[in-house]
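S., here's the first fold you wanted:
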Amino acid sequence: MRAMVYRGPYRIRVEEKPRPRIEHPNDAIVKVQLAAICGSDLHLYHGMMPDTRVGHTFGHEFIGVVDEVGSSVQDLRVGDRVMVPFNVFCGSCFFCARGLYSNCHNVNPNATAVGGIYGYSHTTGGYDGGQAEYVRVPFADVGPSVIPDWMDDEDAVLLTDALATGYFGAQLGGIVEGDVVVVFGAGPVGLYAARSAWLMGAGRVIVVDHLDFRLEKAREFAHAETFNFTEHDDVVVLMKRLTDHLGADVAIDAVGAEADGNLLMHVTSAKLKLQGGSPVALNWAIDSVRKGGTVSVMGAYGPIFSSVKFGDALNKGLTLRMNQAPVKRQWPRLFEHIRNGYLKPSDIVTHRIPLEHIAEGYHIMSAKLDGCIKPLIVPNPA
């Protein structure tokens, strides 16, 4: 089969790999119809995540058709059109029983922290991802769901991570009616978090970024007030000015490991790999939220040290909430929002790229070219 293959930082290509096979009676093999490049894939692409091995196939957002099932699979049939959450999870461990599917204890040798994730290095279990023609799906009766007949493929693939993660980020903020919510980052997750904040009763939503085309999408798609941080001396002072000098009620970090805005932080993390990520957006969130407020962290960071302003968070009495999204837990409510017309996830899609040209897709997204917000990957274009 053809698959995207990692060959080192900034080096990926499409190669022939063995078609995945059933390794356990609970496995399924899915023929991928649609995948996506996620902003967090860029952390792998840039060499930010440890134990990203040569030969690994990325891609934790994908949908497809069931091509083969193991002997113990009961709920899926060959030919079913399925959406697969980015979490690999068993459904029965201590954490899965509590809905913490992203923290499953049975799917990752490094499970003292995160559970399993498709296509996201051996730090998260080493599972090959869906930027390929076929993918092996463990625990096939637990993770995948049959896509409803009324749902478009492009909406379904965005439910496998980006939309569910953005919604979860707003959910972790504990938003109550009338809250002022500031979202740092206007990529897909930030856009979805901002849109979701309205669904949870926010009275005001502000989005901060430095790319004008993404801020334009935040105004159009998320109906948010927007600010380009490069046009202001101090974004924290700006946020205080906008909120009667109190701060926002909720701040959401939807940027993560490669945040711009502070050259020293960016160099020590993205270039020298001395931190698990540049905490610029997270520190802005801590300083921009009011005393007693909540900071929700959706941006991805590596497992090593980052210079976060924890003392400020302590002294302000903040609540910090974060996790990889337990995707499937978000689906019932999101299905209703989409079916009722409150959300159209595919409205943020900007590019549709054949698998053979995925290296160009990564370059376009990494360099922020051509107004790229969310690129989809088509393994077998018609």
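And the second, which I think is the more interesting of the pair:
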Amino acid sequence: MLSALTSRRRFADLSEQEVLALAISSEEDDARIYRSYAQRLRDDYPATAAVFDGMATEEDGHRQSLIDLHRHRFGDTIPLIRREHVAGFYARRPVWLQQGLSLVTIRAEAAGMEKDAEAFYLRAAAATTDAGTRRLLGDLAAAEGGHQRAAEGLEAAHLAGTAREEEDLTARRQFILTWVQPGLAGLMDGSVSTLAPIFATAFATQNSWTTFLVGLAASVGAGISMGFTEAAHDDGVLSGRGSPWKRGLASGVMTMLGGLGHALPYLIPDFWTATALAIAVVFVELWAIAWIQNRFMETPFLRAALQVVLGGALVFAAGALIGGG
């Protein structure tokens, strides 16, 4: 690892030919990245896929122009030099290798690619004292700025009218199916189902520490159970709900948090203070569930509040009665 770092060249030590070769390899890499995005998006977001196809074609054209310039100035043999060979050169995070990237993330990464390249060439041009190198780096910066303007033009051509709205709606639907829906189910289960055992223990023992241990066990156990259930019962292929592990993670974590919300107050030694705070947390949790249902699931707020609060109140009453009896 150390030898790999020490063997990297400083950008300031590169010759004009090597800078040109670096630009050529960078353009080639970016074209491949754009094509990988296009391939990934083609089925669900055909308009955005067409944008990335056009951007890849633009990169091919710029690479060919750079090759022609290299052939004119330095001949046909292009030195082998890439981003990872140069210390301080901007790096591309390999996000295109990740599965399940959102449409928003991909668009943002593409915009960042062009901005990073342009900014780097401008900084490099300002730092050099050689007129020829400065001119070359300035040309490369202008080329990257041209890429960005070309991308905006391609986006306007392929995402006109309702195309962007339709794709954004599809992306929102996927986000809700993969993250919000299982997370909401987990939060509801964790917040409501743990009410009875926690408050039954509280009123039966009137001991904060015992109540906390029961709440912790119930919350963690319910989170593990809900997480594995969500991940195992649907692989997402036919339903289109997305990665089972993402859904399982959302469901499991939110279930655990829902239970821990009204278990953590029992870390307070005074039993009645802890109970009063736990009851207040329960009301906050239930109203939060109603808000999420209204915000993402388009359930009328009053209906959601009535369902959640009434259900939670009944479970709480059952736990209190059992514990108090």
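Why I say that: Residues 2-160 form a domain with the Ferritin fold (CATH 1.20.1260.10). The chain has two domains: 2-160, 165-324.

Talk tomorrow,
H.
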